[in-house]
Automatic annotation (TrEMBL):
This is Uncharacterized protein. It comes from the Eukaryota. Central component of the receptor complex responsible for the recognition and translocation of cytosolically synthesized mitochondrial preproteins. Together with TOM22 functions as the transit peptide receptor at the surface of the mitochondrion outer membrane and facilitates the movement of preproteins into the translocation pore. Residues 132-151 are annotated as: Disordered. Belongs to the Tom20 family. GO terms for biological process: protein insertion into mitochondrial outer membrane; protein transport. The keyword Mitochondrion applies. It comes from Papaver somniferum. Keywords: Membrane, Mitochondrion, Mitochondrion outer membrane, Protein transport, Transmembrane, Transmembrane helix, Transport. One of its GO terms (cellular component) is mitochondrial outer membrane translocase complex. It holds the Pfam family TOM20_plant. It is found in: Mitochondrion outer membrane.
Length: 151
């Protein structure tokens, strides 16, 4: 079965799940990740992402060199980073996503989807870092101004 950046959908629901097949475990993890968009709140979404990460990691135990599984795991960590309000913590998830995208590219260096995922996640991380630094500077400036005004 061709798994390269496979986008799972409704037709997979008719598939008989084999808990010992890494492709089936990946399919399960991907479907869990896709369900996150329907979660009603941040906590539910975070729990669904964590469940997807767990399934995808389980699949990697059975087939550690499956670039599709590695790529989806990168997607899951990116989503986890996007759900994390503290930039310092989010950066850890983005770094993890970048590591998985790099691993996928090592297995399939010509895959443009893997490359674009890596580039876009690195760009998001950079933008968020700049925003966080700007917020820190604004906060410091505001505190300094408040202190001066009080004197």
């Amino acid at each position: 079965m061709e798994m390269k950046t496979k986008d799972y959908s409704e037709h997979d629901l008719d598939h008989t799940f084999d808990p010992n097949d890494s492709d089936d475990i990946t399919r399960w993890g991907v479907l869990l990740l896709k369900l996150t968009q329907f979660q009603p709140d941040a906590e539910s979404k975070t729990n669904a992402i964590l469940a997807a990460i767990s399934k995808l990691e389980q699949s990697l135990v059975k087939d550690p060199f499956n670039p599709n599984t590695v790529w989806w795991l990168g997607n899951a960590y990116k989503e986890r980073g996007l759900m994390t309000p503290d930039y310092n913590v989010a950066a850890i998830y983005f770094d993890r996503a970048i590591e998985f995208y790099e691993l996928a590219l090592m297995e399939e260096p010509e895959d443009q989807i893997y490359l674009k995922s890596l580039e876009s996640t690195a760009e998001v991380k950079t933008c968020l870092a700049q925003h966080a630094a700007g917020a820190e500077n604004s906060s410091t400036s505001y505190e300094e101004e408040t202190t001066k005004a009080a004197e």
